[in-house]
User: Fold Methionine ABC transporter ATP-binding protein from Azospirillum oleiclasticum.
Amino acid sequence: MIKLQSIEKTYPARGGGAPVPALSGIDLTVGRGEIFGIIGRSGAGKSTLLRTINLLETPTAGRVLVDGVELTALPAAELRAARRSIGMIFQHFNLLSSRTVYDNVALPLELAGVRKAAIRQAVDPLLELVGLTDKRDRYPAELSGGQKQRVGIARALANGPKVLLSDEATSALDPETTGQILELLADINRRLSLTIVLITHEIAVIKEIGHRIAVLDGGRIVEKGAVFDVFAHPVHATTRGFVDPVVNRGLPDSLRHRLSPVPAPDANPVLRITFTGDRATSPVISMLSRKFNLDLNIWHGQVDEIQGSPFGTLVVEAVGTTTAIEAAISLLRVNNLGVEVIGHALPGSLRAAG
Ligand SMILES: Nc1ncnc2c1ncn2[C@@H]1O[C@H](COP(=O)(O)OP(=O)(O)OP(=O)(O)O)[C@@H](O)[C@H]1O
Assistant:
């Protein structure tokens, strides 16, 4: 549905300063009906990337295609028309305070020259879809944040878009309201097969409703994939920084100080084994002990859930010969279990800390 090819964006120099590179080498495909989350720290380029999809930002180089149409090749009038198939919602809702809920939702249709009767036919069902029928004649100032965002969503859907862009749409909301708005977006995605691209600095948002994710760092995509895979096996340090706090992959501080990052004499390797899906309950520890004559001291373990699928982590200190430990790691990998050496146990550390 959306294809970004070799996108570069550099903002021109202002006031004697240097040009600001914002995006570099972006290649991204978003499938029809997908909820695609883009995460990154402040300044990573998320807004620029999102606004490139509807060409609110013109890329310095590269091509943008939406539903088979190359937006970057369209003349201005055709681009304006093509933009109607791309709705957008914002962190601060961007509603017109002098217009009622109904009139805010009707605005894009008025601008497109749709007749009054047809506008009514379109707006009333949208208000019902977002649960605001009873607020139809209220003004934005009379609404809660969550209700305002519902108006924003209804307005973004007024032209029957194929794509919805969400610019930090829940960042100004409390956690409970955030959950309700995410539920609404997931519901709309299912019911209307709407493709949704959302940018956020809150990874929990993507964990909740995303299908795939891209991680942006310094204007580049450093990691992308299915949400479950990226959450279960984050590779890039930036991704880990986002993922670890919400899926409890990290070691508690009380255990972290027992780890040496480099091998030391008599320091046993410490392995993090990750289990996903059905394998979460595999009796892997006893099997490895028997097969390779290893002692596996369990340091830490937990089972989490990512979008309804179990995901477990076990951190063990492996005591045995190097050959046996390497063979055990190979066997885990062959069986598609995640395994990594996260450090080396400082001798006596368990006893000392116990
Ligand atoms: N209009 C502009 N002119 C010049 N530089 C800009 C402009 N907009 C953004 N930038 C710069 O481009 C880079 C990426 O900004 P962008 O707003 O896309 O990041 P972001 O990840 O959305 O950040 P945040 O989460 O803080 O909104 C930053 O260095 C920013 O300062």
